[in-house]
Amino acid sequence: MTHTAPTIILINPQMGENIGAAARAMLNCGLTELRLVNPRDGWPSEQANAMSSGALAKMPPVKVYETTKEAIADCHYTYATTARPRDMVKPVFTPQGATEDAHSRINQGEKVAFLFGGERAGLSNDDVALAQSVITIPLNPDFSSLNLGQAVLLTTYEWSKTQDNTALRDLPTGKSAIATMAELTNLYKRLETALEENHFFRVEEMRPTIVRNIQNMLSRADMTSQEISTFHGIITALTGKKTP
Q1: How far is Cα 30 from Cα 88, in angstroms, rounded to an integer?
Q2: What pLDDT, in 10s, does the model give residues 91-136?
Q3: What is the secondary structure of 187-211 as a DSSP string?
Q4: CA distances (Å), origin 182, targets 43, 194, 230
C-alpha cells in the first residue's frame, strides 16, 4: 500500500469541538486520515462536525480505537507531540524537522503518524514510550500551553510546506513583464539628463552619490515595462520633451 501523508492520531481527546478544529487544520494542510483513541464524549460528534466547517465530511471516515497500541499497529514510525521533558531517550524534532523526516520515510514506503494527547494533560508517559521520537514545538518556555487544534495546525502546516512549490517571493505583473536592465538604464540616463537640465544637481561633488541613490531606489521597485513607460510619460509631462 502506498502512503502519501502522515496519519493524525488524537489520544483521549475530550471535546468534540477540539476534534473538529483539528480536522479543519488537517484538511487546511492537505492531510485527511484522522484516528481517535478513546474520545471522552464518544463518536460521532455533532460538535466536532460543526467545528470542522465541513472538513470531516470531505475526509475519509474517522477510525476510533480503544487503545493507542491498536491505533498505531499498522504504522512503521510514530512521533509523539509533547511540551514536557519525559526523561526518555528519544530523538526530539521540531515540527519542521519531524515533517522532513516523515517525508523521507513516506518516500521509502513507511506509514507514519503524529500523536497528540488530550487537552487536559497531553500524552501519557505510556503513550510517549510507544513512539519512536518526540515533537516539541518551540514556544515561550514560560507559557507553552496550546489548544489541541492549534498544536495540530502548527505541525501539519510544516507538512504542507514540504509539499508546496509556491515561490517564497512572488510579484504578479499581469500582462506586463519585469523591465530589462536596458530599459532601466535608459530611464536612469533620461532622468539624470532631465534633472541636470533643470538644475537639480546644485553641488556637483554630490552628483555621483545622488545619481546612485536614485538608481538604487528605482531598481528596488521591481518596475515593469509598463511602469517604465509611465515613468517616461511623467518626465515628458514635466519637461515637455518626449522620449528620445
Answers
A1: 32
A2: 899 999 999 999 999 988 999 999 999 877 789 999 999 999 999 9
A3: HHHHHHHHHHHTT--SSGGGHHHHH
A4: 66, 18, 16
β-pairing, 112-116 vs 7-11, is parallel
What H or E segment, with its residue span, contains residue 175? none
What would the mean pLDDT of 144-155 be, rounded to a whole number? 90
End-to-end CA separation in angstroms for the chain: 68
Interacting residues of 214 by C-beta distance below 8 A, sequence separation 6+: 188, 191, 192
pLDDT of residue 164: 63
**How far lies 107's CA from each of 102, 103, 129, in Å?**
9, 6, 25
Mean pLDDT within 39-66: 95
On whether the pTM is more than 0.85, the answer is: no
Distance of CA 57 to the CA centre of its chain: 24
CB burial of residue 116 (10 Å; 0-12, 13-18, 19+): buried
Of the listed ranges 76-80, 84-88, 111-115, the one predicted with least confidence? 84-88
What DSSP line would sit under 47-69, residue for residue? HHHHHTTTHHHHSPPPEEESSHH
For 161-167, the CB contacts below 8 A with 24+ separation are 161/96, 161/99, 162/99, 162/100, 162/103, 163/30
Spatial distance between the Cα atoms of 205 and 76, rounded to a whole number of angstroms? 71
Which of 184, 89, 70, 169 is closest to 129 using CA atoms? Answer: 89
